[in-house]
C-alpha cells in the first residue's frame, strides 16, 4: 500500500491518536491530526530535515525496564551498550542540542538538561497526588518530560503541545527508546485548542503565562478545555510582593526577549477568577536558583547565573526582581 505524506508524518503519533479516539476527548482528534500534519509537512525550522534524518538513524534497542516515576525518566536494556554504541547514541542525541528539559537516562546515556525538571515535577506531584487514570493536557510542554512523569503518577493519557519544533524532535528521539503510546508532543499552541470541547481532567500550564502577550486570554482558553471538576496546575513567574502589582518588562527580562507580564499573587488570582476558575490555592513559591537552571554539556549556551546581577543575586542583569515562581491549583468554576 502506498502511504500518503500525511500518513508518514502521522506515523509516530498513530498509536497515541488511536487511544485518543477511544477517550472522552475524541472530538479533538480531527483538529489535532490536521494541525500536526500541516505543521510537519511545511516545518518552519531550518534544522527539521537534519533532525529527521538523525531520528531515522537511531538504533533499535530492546527495552528491558522503563522508569517514568523516577527523576531520571529512562530505559535500560538487558545488556549495557558497549563503549562504541554508547558513544554513537550520545553523539546522536547531542545532535538535538540544546536540551532544556530533563533529565533522561536512555540506555546508559544521561541527558543532563539545563533545567532540573524533576525538581519542578516534585513540587507539582506533591500538590497533585495520584493522577488516578486522569486525561492530562500539558500546554507548552517542552520535550514531554512532565508527560512521562504524569504517566508515572497514574495518568491514563497525556497530550503535550508545544509550538517549538525542536521539542517535538526531542520527544520523538526520546520516545523512540521509551516507546510510550500514551503520550504525544504535538506542534500546537494554546490558540489551536481554543473552543475545543471540555474533556481533560488535569491541565498543566507551566512556564507559559509570562510568554503570552495577553495572559488573561491564555487562561480563558484553558478553562473550557477542562471537564467539570477538572483542575488546572498553573506555574508562572510572580512578583513576591503584597497587593496588586504587575511588571511588564521593557526590553529583556533575565535576557529573555519574550517575557511580557509578571503579576503579583493578588493580580494572578484576579486573572484566574476573571477566567472562571475557583478554589484557587497557592501550593508552592520557589526562588529559581542556578542549581535548578544551569549550563551543562547538554545546554552549552548561557544560563541563569549569567542573567543575574553578579553583585546582587536578587536582581536580574536588567535590574528587575530575580525569578520567583508560583505554582497554583485551581478548579474549573
Ligand atoms: C519556559 S518554557 C516551559 C516549558 C515547561 N512547561 C516547563 O515548565 O519546564 C515555555 C514553553 O512554552 C512554549 N510556548 C510558547 N508559546 C506558547 C503557546 N502560545 N502555546 C503553547 N506553548 C507555548 C514554548 O515553546 C516553551 O516550550
From TrEMBL:
GO BP terms in the entry: methylation
Entry EC no(s): 2.5.1.-
EC class: transferase
Keywords: Methyltransferase, S-adenosyl-L-methionine, Transferase, tRNA processing
Pfam families found in the cross-reference section: Methyltransf_9
Family matches, as SUPFAM superfamilies: S-adenosyl-L-methionine-dependent methyltransferases (SSF53335)
Origin: domain of life: Bacteria
Catalytic activity entry: carboxy-S-adenosyl-L-methionine + 5-hydroxyuridine(34) in tRNA = 5-carboxymethoxyuridine(34) in tRNA + S-adenosyl-L-homocysteine + H(+)
Gene3D superfamilies: Vaccinia Virus protein VP39
PANTHER family: METHYLTRANSFERASE (PTHR43464), UBIQUINONE BIOSYNTHESIS O-METHYLTRANSFERASE, MITOCHONDRIAL (PTHR43464:SF19)
HAMAP family the record matches: tRNA_carboxymethyltr_CmoB
Function: Catalyzes carboxymethyl transfer from carboxy-S-adenosyl-L-methionine (Cx-SAM) to 5-hydroxyuridine (ho5U) to form 5-carboxymethoxyuridine (cmo5U) at position 34 in tRNAs.
NCBIfam families named among the record's database cross-references: PRK15068.1, tRNA 5-methoxyuridine(34)/uridine 5-oxyacetic acid(34) synthase CmoB
Name the record gives this protein: tRNA U34 carboxymethyltransferase
Native source organism of the sequence: Thiorhodovibrio winogradskyi
Amino acid at each position: 500500500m502506498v502511504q500518503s505524506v500525511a500518513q508518514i508524518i502521522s506515523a509516530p503519533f498513530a498509536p497515541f491518536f488511536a487511544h485518543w479516539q477511544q477517550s472522552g476527548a475524541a472530538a479533538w482528534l480531527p483538529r489535532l491530526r490536521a494541525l500536526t500534519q500541516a505543521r510537519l509537512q511545511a516545518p518552519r525550522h531550518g534544522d527539521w530535515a537534519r533532525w529527521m534524518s538523525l531520528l531515522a538513524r537511531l538504533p533499535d534497542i530492546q527495552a528491558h525496564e522503563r522508569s517514568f516515576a523516577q527523576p531520571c525518566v529512562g530505559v535500560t536494556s538487558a545488556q549495557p551498550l558497549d563503549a562504541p554504541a554508547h558513544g554513537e547514541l550520545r553523539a546522536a542525541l547531542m545532535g538535538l542540542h540544546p536540551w532544556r528539559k530533563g533529565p533522561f537516562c536512555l540506555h546508559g546515556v544521561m541527558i543532563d538538561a539545563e533545567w532540573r525538571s524533576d525538581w519542578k515535577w516534585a513540587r507539582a506531584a506533591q500538590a497533585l497526588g495520584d493522577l488516578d487514570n486522569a486525561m492530562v493536557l500539558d500546554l507548552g510542554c517542552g520535550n514531554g518530560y512532565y508527560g512521562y512523569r504524569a504517566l508515572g503518577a497514574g495518568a491514563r493519557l497525556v497530550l503535550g503541545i508545544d509550538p517549538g519544533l525542536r521539542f517535538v524532535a526531542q520527544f520523538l528521539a526520546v520516545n523512540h527508546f521509551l516507546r510510550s503510546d500514551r503520550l504525544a508532543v504535538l506542534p500546537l499552541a494554546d490558540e489551536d485548542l481554543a473552543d475545543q470541547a471540555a474533556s481533560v481532567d488535569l491541565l498543566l500550564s507551566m512556564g507559559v503565562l509570562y510568554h503570552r502577550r495577553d495572559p488573561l486570554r491564555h487562561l480563558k482558553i484553558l478553562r473550557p478545555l477542562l471537564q467539570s471538576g477538572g483542575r488546572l496546575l498553573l506555574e508562572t513567574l510572580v512578583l513576591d510582593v503584597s497587593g496588586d502589582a504587575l511588571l511588564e518588562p521593557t526590553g529583556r527580562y533575565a535576557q529573555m526577549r519574550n517575557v511580557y507580564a509578571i503579576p503579583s499573587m493578588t493580580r494572578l488570582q484576579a486573572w484566574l477568577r476573571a477566567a472562571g476558575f475557583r478554589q484557587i490555592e497557592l501550593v508552592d513559591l520557589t526562588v529559581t536558583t542556578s542549581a535548578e537552571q544551569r549550563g551543562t554539556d547538554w545546554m552549552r549556551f548561557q544560563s541563569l547565573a549569567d542573567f543575574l546581577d553578579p553583585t546582587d543575586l536578587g536582581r536580574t542583569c536588567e535590574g528587575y526582581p530575580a525569578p520567583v515562581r508560583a505554582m497554583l491549583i485551581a478548579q474549573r468554576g
